Amino acid sequence: MGSYFLRRLGKALVILIGVSFLAYVLIDLAPADPAQVIAAQRLGGHPNADQVAWVRQAYGLDQPLLVQYGRWAQQVLQGNWGYSIRTGNSITAEIGTALRYSLTLALWTLSFVVVVGVALGAWAALRPDSLWDQLMRWATLIIVAVPEFWLAFLLILLFAVQLGWLPSYGAKSGWHLILPLVALGLGPTAQLARLTRILLLDELGRDYLRTARAKGLSARRALLHHALPNIVVPFITLLAVQFSALVGGAVIIETIFTWPGLGSYYITAVEFRDIPVIQTTVLVFAVIISSANLLADLSYGLVDPRIRLG
Amino acid sequence: MNLIRKLLLYGLLLVLLAACVPTLPASDTSPDARSDADRAVEQTLVLAAGDSLGPGNPHDYSSNMALLDLLYEPLVRYGPDGSIQPALAESWEISPDGLLWTFKLRPNVTFHDGTPFDAAAAKWNLQQWIGVEAHNWLPTSTRVTDIDTPDAMTVVLTLKEAYYPAVQDLSLMRPVRFLSPTAVDGAGNFVEPIGTGPWQIETLDDNEALLVRNETYWGAKPQLTHVRIEVIVDAQTRVAALQSGEIHVIGGEYLGSIPPESLPTLQADSDLTVLTGAGVTSFLLTTQYRQPPFDDRRVRQALNQAIDRAGIAQAIFGGLAEPATGLMATALPYVTRTDSDLYTYDPAHAQSLLVEAGWTLGADGMLTKAGEPLAIDLVVDQSRLPQTAAIAEAVQAQFQAIGIALELRLYDYSGWLESYSNNDFDLLMDFTWGPPYDPHTQLNGAFHTQADPTEVVSFASPELDALIDAALASTDAVARQALYDQIWQTVDDQAAAIPIVYPQRIYAQRNEVAGFRLGGTEYDLAYALQNVVIHGK
């Protein structure tokens, strides 16, 4: 397992270098000259050639791409993540704050998804093809099909405007977490409920459980103590993917609710061509996704002794 | 799975969750130490901003202009009627040749931290931008050669050439407003927002600002005791937050604009009032006037007359925009009208102008010249100005009706800027900045020959260059108006641009708010809030 871990770590490192370099190349390939965009945003209008030249020089954008990348990589390795072009603040501090908000939202959403999704799926699996099961399947199908931004506005209209129970924006207290969490979590919850149901039905139909049931094991005990633990491995894979998506991909929901997470931080940086921020955020995304996948792979061995890593 | 493994797994999950819980900032539930009497007279107005507020530095371009207006003041202010009014300068005098500008500073003004506002503080502020490369877009930055302080209450600016709009430049927000010299560190870096304005910062971060009334303010003090500005990025959420009562006022270009499609909702809500002000910016199309077919004046005239401006104002803005009757709105200084019929919708005449210019009308209703169709493109930035995409579609249909094939190129701001900078467009959707920048900024930047020949110019001619130069250097208001009249005449005669509408300034407020009014510019928030009180709640 030790050598497996080291090998995976080595691979992750290669991926991080590749991703961060690719981010530089992509900024270069994207339409519009970054110096021009930065100049226009900083000076609030149509910059003239002198101003663009000034920005290009001031931010080192006149250097060849490899030199720019090398400079940035050197800084990052020295632990200096630099300063945002847009705000002038330390990127370390800004990303730290954004990451905290993103992790808060992602982990709470993930907990909601797991608890509600598994419970719904298990509940339906216990009464296959009953009215409730059918209802659950239809309802989840509809929820999976609904775009999350639309759901978000429906939630705002109902709970903030009509009922006045919950705030419609911001991140000041636990109450502010609820609407973005639900808007973000309903889709994955429905997905997980459907997955749980199918896997459980499959597992419950296996010979060993039929025998156990024949020997007098209760349906509830068969489900909770035998079937459920056996379907954990595909769960972990799904959760690792969902977690990565929630940390980095909640851009739309973050924007709608003004939740100051990594996704909206990144999008603002892209619009502004705030290159050091784009670079560092992409690197943080890559680290999160790599480590979520690595953790998932490592945990397979932990939850299923039949799986040996190495 | 044995028990230990299970416990390990759950433990790990719990730790992860627990690590995150306390990271939510504390809510506003801290015990309130103030007495009931204090709270009874306290009134907090809550506003929504659409973008991060920034650090509150008036000397760069990173902070919200409406927030800055509450904190910082200029020497002179652009009044609601377009006149220039005294602010931190009590009076000013311009030498007959227009080269010496003497400002008498207002006595007994202090910054929020008690630092006196005097000639030394004023000069230090002016030095932060005058002659500084990054601020040279501002014409006054390159024209002032000397800043002199003959006594503690007088500042004299020496200009290398007469430039009447210097006084408008001095009323701007960024980078000309006055920051306390104590607000920077030893190296001159901005540390905290300290101004002379009617409001001072209590707390400020990128997403929220809490301001408290400046009790030592030299002018009329506001009625409100606090103002809170909260960032709500999404425009629809801003509307919802206004409806739910979390926010008192939304709207304004610099605060957070109202999406036009939300207007019916806002107008129908009996708890809300929609406030509008006459439009002072123009949405307009720029042509490649140096290249065919746009080098032919008749083509530019035809494109102007082919557009149904009243229809666009009604259909796309729900009537909350004025159809353009000239390059700029007459609410701006020196803008007058000619008797030109250039902006009157007349598709038949437009088509006949194009036929006169050599195109022939085919059986399919499209115009061709030497077998080539009259096909042009239009570059639109739909990220900053969402309505422009709808305007472009309307223009496309109206051009089609007289036989012009218009291809729309809809981009985000970066893509638009790329096309703009490379002169890669036939027609370009753009807008003017409004007061206090116009009319001089737009004329000098887009209707005047530029030193750099690659720069985009809407239209320029030696005649127009001479008129604009003379107007900007004029020292006599009457002569200046006569020059401007000639400028507008030339712009209309040459069909120098294709203005479409002047979108109105739109705000919406809850009905418990009274006294909110619109200032001369979109960032005049201190003026807007001066008489505001909150009833009921």
Can you tell me about this structure?
The complex is a heterodimer of chains A (310) and B (537). By secondary structure, chain A is mainly alpha-helical. Helices cover 78% and strands 0% of the residues of chain A. In chain A, helix 7 (148-162) crosses helix 8 and helix 13 (262-272) packs antiparallel against helix 14 (275-303). The longest helix of chain A has 36 residues, at 91-126. A 6-stranded mixed beta sheet of chain B has the order 14-21-13-20-18-19. A 4-stranded mixed beta sheet of chain B has the order 1-10-9-8, with helices on one face. Chain B is globular and about 75 Å long. The model of chain B is unreliable at 20-34 (pLDDT under 50). Chain B has 537 residues and is an alpha+beta fold. Chain B has 3 domains: 15-72 and 197-277 and 506-537, Periplasmic binding protein-like II (D-Maltodextrin-Binding Protein, domain 2, 3-Layer(aba) Sandwich); 73-182, D-Maltodextrin-Binding Protein, domain 2 (3-Layer(aba) Sandwich), CATH 3.40.190.10; 283-503, Dipeptide-binding Protein, domain 3, CATH 3.10.105. In chain B, helix 9 (297-305) runs antiparallel to helix 11 (347-356) and helix 15 runs antiparallel to helix 16. The interface between A and B is large, with 61 and 58 residues.
